[in-house]
Give the backbone structure.
Amino acid sequence: MSTELPSDPKESPPAPRPAPREVWKKGGRLLSVLLAVNVLLLACTLISGGAFNKVAVYDTDVFALLTTMLLLAMVWILFYLLGTARCPNGVPYRDAHAGPIWLRGGLVLFGICTLIMDVFKTGYYSSFFECQSAIKILYPLTQAVFVIVQTYFLWVSAKDCVHTHLDLTRCGLMLTLTTNLAIWMAAVVDESVHQSHSHSSSHSNTSHTRLALDLERASSAVGGDCSCDTAVCQIFQQGYFYLYPFNIEYSLFASTMLYVMWKNVGRLLASSTPSHSHAPSPVSLFRETFFAGPVLGLMLFVVGLAVFIIYEVQVSGEQSRTQQALVTYYSFNIVCLGLMTLVSLSGSVIYRFDRRAMDQHKNPTRTLDVALLMGAALGQYAISYYSIVAVVAGTPRDLLAGLNLAHALLMIAQHTFQNVFIIESLHRGPPSAEPHDTPPKEPCHGLTFANLDALHTLPACPPTPRLVGPSPAGPQEAASIIVAPRSHWRRRCLKDISLFLLLCNIILWIMPAFGARPHFSNTVEVDFYGYSLWAAIVNICLPFGIFYRMHAVSSLLEVYVMS
């Protein structure tokens, strides 16, 4: 006869079961990646084919494909939002490192500018509605709705670690990511063709004019007898071309956040994930700096804006004014890149004295940041090496060729040392992770014992006399007070370095993003490689260089917070 033991009333309830581990995570990821690759290749084929008249692909076909992708992505986003709202247990974890506030804030800023661009584009196509396809007006309207829906989705769900409908969620995220990349490529192709057409139309060379005729349809985006003659139409046309950089950055920002969400699908985390990425308040942004970095960075930012305006005004004028504009442009960039290289080197030297432990935790956001920094830098590396070969092996040996060579060499050095500084900073722990030298305890003299068994019989050491007054709570806190003055100057220097590099990267993003193309105004590379080959190199590699600058800004802001 069995007797049941009485249950202990103080027995704690059973711990909640963790979320089940996925059987084959790589299989679900493989399915979504294959879907994304096929859709992206189809979009790239149509977008690149629609840029030339020799291919029987019309811009209406491209707009139809992009509109369809936007609609499908919006349907999935709405399904995701409704599904997670009705099933709160579907998101048991949230990644504290994903979707920091400055990344989401930048997404909102670029999204607003993209909405303004869509308004300009809608007004531009509506100016000659009689001879245009309706899809050209429907596309910017659909894109505006997509930007609103996606921005809200990423604002509220960027940190989600989803555990329901895993394969469907991965495929939906990859479809949305592919849609953003297709929009990015369409904007890059349209802007590059527009820049090539503007450059070709300003030269009397017949080969350039022939190329401009081949690219005219994509740059003007009109066909038949349509013409943009009215002042309002021209304002709309110039307006949305100048807003293209913001649309490009919005698509890339959204793509990075969607990739992190895709990596976090089915991810198991601890109940509380440590995070040291907090957004700085505007009041405390410059409080813990020596002010040297922000002041010098602001000075270079203002001077860079003036140089950019002078360059844009003079570069399309006479040959002498173009030469002067290029000398001014290269001189500023050489000074700016040289200072950024030295500052990045000094930051790496400071880290040799930093005692913070390296953060070895798994962090998909940081892994993606490092990969994007290294990958995007390859675009500027390629342009710089092509320029070095053209200058060294070419015939001109004038001032402009020397400045071009120095600019290319410093561009390589600056990207290299800045990447080293940022990547090392992202792998450092927070300031609280710095080890402190704990003061040694006072020994107890005169105590001897034969064996450990007699230890409990020995009298305790008398406490050390202490002054009564406000004192730290423990030895570690006391040590932190002693160590703080020694480490405080390092943190201040690192914050100055971060803000200086941040401001310099912003001005170096503004210049090429808003139309500065010294690669074509300076004829060294054009004469050496030929216009067609050099235009292909620049139009492929320069968008990656522009993205590098903006991604470096977001990474440097995180470095500032972590310092």
